Amino acid sequence: MPDQRDPEVTREALTGWLRARLPGARIPMIETPETSGFSSETLIFDAAWSDPDGGGERHEPLVARVAPVRYQIFPEPRFEEQYRLMRVLDERTGIPVPPIRWYEPDDSTLGAPFFVMGRVDGRVPTDMPPYHMDGWVTEIPEDERAAMWWSTLEILADLHRLDPDALGLGFLDEPEWGATGLDQRLNYYEHYLHWAYDGPQDVAQEALGWLRAHRPDEPDQPKVLWGDARIGNVIFQKGVPAAVLDWETAVLGAPEEDLAWFLFLDRHHSEGIGVPRLPGFPSSEDTVARYAELLGRPLRNMEYYEVLSGFKFSVIMARIGQAMIDFDWIGPDDAFPHDNNCTRLLARILGGLA
Known about the structure:
This protein has about 350 residues and is of the alpha+beta class. Helices cover about 40% and strands about 15% of the residues. The chain contains nine helices and nine strands.
């Protein structure tokens, strides 16, 4: 999304805000984006301040995530909930998230609420171009790719073993959309579908009908779901996750939903765009088998959750398509919002169902 933030104005505003928390702080470096993401804006900066204990000047690399103000990818952004979850994960679990520093609910400093976290070094697999097609992931050894995959899977299992009640994470539930889990998800994404784009949505509607007709039970206690579980949301250091990012779609539900998204997004970034998966990445079958071991029980209804993943992503793509229309990147009658790599992959999956 095009961004017009003035770096010097931003530096001055953020410096004043920071000095209320770190007296005498200054910001010697700040990077403001030429473009920003739909779910939030990212500001990269360094902070410097005098050590009150006489240890000279201290420095810390930081990142500010700013809530969306110009365009929303989700109908109800859950920005504060993302901060609250990351704070709990940082302080009370072993899930590797960036160190969380501060939250600012007032919009007077940067035009929107924001939170500040420590900056973590490493590399993130790219979505544009998808990492199976180009970029640094295509250049690393196969065993490093395997390490990236399996280590992220272990973090996902650690997340799904957490007790949401003991950690006070009930705020992730969305009872306004129905019962916890699939009832909420289907109702919310049906609402999202109608809000995202008002053109034709034949594939998404077919998927929604199938999902409602075949909805399984979810017999276990709901767990914390990442919501956007994929290697493209992990900062890696030589195959090892240094930090896990992007928790804005975290909810409560069945672990199968997270794992299916993990697999579907990888499938989209390979089969969905017509390129082979890179050697070294484990197969879907091996991944499901290993995850059952990590979870300590068989996985259920993975075919259903794959369709759910495709449906959710098709809704998101519809909204991105609407943004492309609104920013005059494509014409108002362009088919992209309802005919794209995701919807075509989802249509093939639906066509193969018994």
